[in-house]
Amino acid sequence: xxxxxxxxxxxxxxxxxxxxxxxxxxxxxxxTTGCSGMAYVIExxxxxxxxxxxxxDHGVKVFVNPGSLVYLDGTELDYAxxxxxxxxxxxxxxxxxxxxxxxxxNI
Length: 107
Fold this sequence. Notes:
Layout: E1 4-5, H1 7-20, E2 25-33, E3 37-45, E4 53-57, E5 60-64, H2 66-72, E6 76-82, E7 85-91, E8 97-98, E9 105-106
Parallel strand pairs: 1-6, 2-5
Antiparallel strand pairs: 2-3, 4-5, 6-7, 8-9
């Protein structure tokens, strides 16, 4: 099982953590919502939870709860700028379908 980050994503996370002045890494999870069933949740982690599964890539720690890991296993997190839009992008090999607006997915 693994969660990876591109260099671009890791650089952006490091920049955000430095500017906010606190945090131990990035927390990824999924929640039930949207028209396709699930949505990604991305937050900055200020502490390590007891049941966290921890990954580290390009010097950034990524924390995932076991319930979300089954949906996120193998995911690569990227950060990209396209025109006026910029943000994190999940490259998740488990996704079978996504909604038209890109806010939710199903497996």
